[in-house]
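Hi there,

I know you've been waiting on this one. I reran it after we fixed the sequence typo, so this is the corrected version. Both the input and the resulting structure follow.
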Amino acid sequence: MNTHKPPLTLMAIFAHPDDEAFGTGGTLAYYGADPDVRVVLVCATLGEAGEISNPELATPERLGEVRERELRCACRTLGVDELYLLGYRDSGMAGSDQNLDPRSLAMANFDEAVGKMVELIRRERPEVVVTFDVLGGYGHPDHIAVHYMAKAAFAAAGDDCKYAEQLQDGLVPYQPAKLYYTAIPRRFFYDVIDKMKEMGVVIPERYLERMEGPWGLPEEACTTDIDVRDHLDTKQASIQCHATQLNPDSIFSLLPPEIMRELQSRECFQLAHSGVGADSPGGHDLFQGLR
């Protein structure tokens, strides 16, 4: 008798190339190396409004094309099994002219964008969905938009009254078991600043600004943490794929690898919805209750 069980599926829904690596690269590598888990990544934009660390790497006109290649490099490195691109344009930071680009995620029809995510959830049938917290980590408008879209898609995917046209094409309603938000603890930003001060590093203005804003979540928001120490080399390799975004004043450039290993030893998540009960205190598996 064949007792092999089909793999569990983790779906991560983010806004830009590099979101998967900088924020959750250790976790995706952890599950990417697990033969019982399939990892699916959904990326809403190609990061066309991002910075360019070196003009030899890309031009503004070609940045989206280059960043897609970087994203595919990171996916191969992390062990992502399937990548889906939603086709929206990067909206840029809050208040920028690019927010008004009709192709941008900021200008997207909310129901249409949610429908695209619902279709992928119904197609891939993930047990676990991961996306940004309500603050988007550090307040990027695309991160926040994806939070609300993914949250709505999680709720709608199992409802046969929602996006019924998809059911005519052969898909069926499907409700994932668990929804998690990335939970970058507020202490992480404080620890980064403290390490820079200890080393006498000039602290970039954008990090100081994040100290003033409501970035990061309180420690208690972290319901489930993944020990990624054994996968930090893979995470770092995936980050290196995103060469256009590795500015000389990024924390990955300013702080030595041993310090970054210390700061990134675990990645935290907040269980937002669960059909299999709460995670146990100190839980260390996003598939807790499902294995």
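Quick highlight: Residues 63-78 form the longest helix (16 residues).

Best,
R. S.
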